[in-house]
Write a structure and sequence with these properties.
With 143 residues, the protein is mainly alpha-helical. It has a single domain, classed as Ferritin, core subunit, four-helix bundle (Ferritin, Up-down Bundle), CATH 1.20.1260.10. The chain is built from five helices and no strands. α1 packs antiparallel against α2, α1 packs parallel to α3 and α1 runs parallel beside α5. It is elongated, with a radius of gyration of 15 Å. The relative contact order is 0.20.
Length: 143
């Protein structure tokens, strides 16, 4: 596997891990049952995409993205700070939309920097982007 393909798979892994972590942190702060179900479905799909990327990295004996504990603490701190005074469904949906938009930007940036990759990593990256875009579309109904 070429280094550019590894970069794509690592970004997918990183992006999905961050999304799953954020959903897990926010889960206890969601009081709308429909939004909670939406978040559960999102988490499941992120997990599937993450596992596909990890499988490709492991098959190629490539080093996966390593968790950064400082980033994890910053993410948790940011979520707790932004939900300290407002846990309304609208506000929670807005935070999720921001996260999805950031994921789209990160993935597109990685794709643009690694243009000489095979079909498989590009397809998986585009699946993640499409999923994130669909999430934004679904979450706007809660605003």
């Amino acid at each position: 596997m070429r280094s550019q393909e590894v970069a794509i798979y690592r970004e997918i892994q990183k992006n999905t891990e961050k999304a799953m972590r954020a959903l897990d942190i926010m889960n206890d702060k969601i009081y709308d049952e429909e939004l909670a179900r939406q978040m559960s479905r999102q988490s499941l799909k992120y997990s599937e995409l993450h596992n596909q990327a990890m499988e490709q990295l492991l098959q190629a004996k490539a080093e996966p993205h390593r968790e950064n504990h400082v980033e994890n603490l910053l993410l948790a701190g940011s979520i707790h700070y932004n939900t300290l005074l407002n846990t309304s469904t609208s506000h929670m949906a807005e935070l999720l939309i921001r996260g999805s938009n950031q994921g789209i930007l990160d993935m597109k940036r990685t794709l643009n920097r690694n243009t000489d990759v095979g079909e498989k990593p590009t397809t998986l990256a585009r699946q993640l982007i499409a999923f994130e875009e669909k999430n934004v579309e679904r979450l706007t109904q809660y605003l």
